Amino acid sequence: MSIGTLFVLSAPSGAGKSTLCHALAQRRGDVRLSVSCTTRPPREGEREGVDYYFVTESDFGKKLDRGEFLEWAQVHGHLYGTPKGPIESLRAQGYHVFLNIDTVGARSIKKMFYDCVLIFVAPPSWKALEERLRRRNKDDEATIQRRLANAHREAAQVPFYDYLLVNDRLERALDDLMSVVQAESCRVRRLHLEPDGLPKLGFERGGEPRD
User: 3-state SS of the chain: helix, strand, coil percent to 5?
Assistant: First the structure.
């Protein structure tokens, strides 16, 4: 069994990266989503252990001291951390694991896992992003402006990424994301090969299935 690929998905707040990740996991049985810890309160509809692990700042600090995070950062005034134990376990079982983290965290992950795949999800326009942030009616004006300013800074990091997806329509963006996962699954360096260079497909050289 090949070890699963580690994918990092980053996007400005409101670009739809969480929706894309969950839709992908429903489409592909070999994809699992990393669940981050955060000190921010849950939003309406978010579930403990599914969207995030919601913890106090004290508990977050204890996890940090014990070295339980691959990376952590402060974003919009709250702490976020990526637990490393579940990721290592899932990849060892052959699952592709998706991390939904910001551009700072993506750089940290890339330093630890040189072969991870970085994907940036962009909105179709800045106007569309602002409309999405206002339409969800979850933030005050100051928070919206801060998110828009951060979005411009995050977009400047696109050249550091391997892929850029534009989320203008969810189905089209999901198809693009599916194509990226499939392409990376076929990379030679990710396959376990026989001495003659052929992958272990479960077939004899003559094409007959093995028992």
Answer: 40, 20, 35
Cα distances (angstroms) measured from residue 127 to each of 19, 130, 161, 185: 20, 5, 23, 35
Query: CB burial class (10 A; 0-12, 13-18, 19+) of residue 141?
Result: exposed
Q: Which residues contact 15 (CB under 8 A, 6 or more apart)?
A: 121, 122, 123, 129, 132, 151, 167
Architecture of the domain made up of 6-190? 3-Layer(aba) Sandwich (3.40)
Helices H / strands E in the chain, number of each: 7, 9
Structure token pair of residue 130 = 């602002």
pTM: 0.80
pLDDT in tens, 158-178: 999 999 999 999 999 999 999
In the predicted model, is pLDDT for residue 113 greater than 80?
Answer: yes
Which element (helix H / strand E) includes 180?
Answer: helix 170-185
Question: 133, 144 in Cβ contact below 8 A?
Answer: yes
CA distance 87 to 92: 9
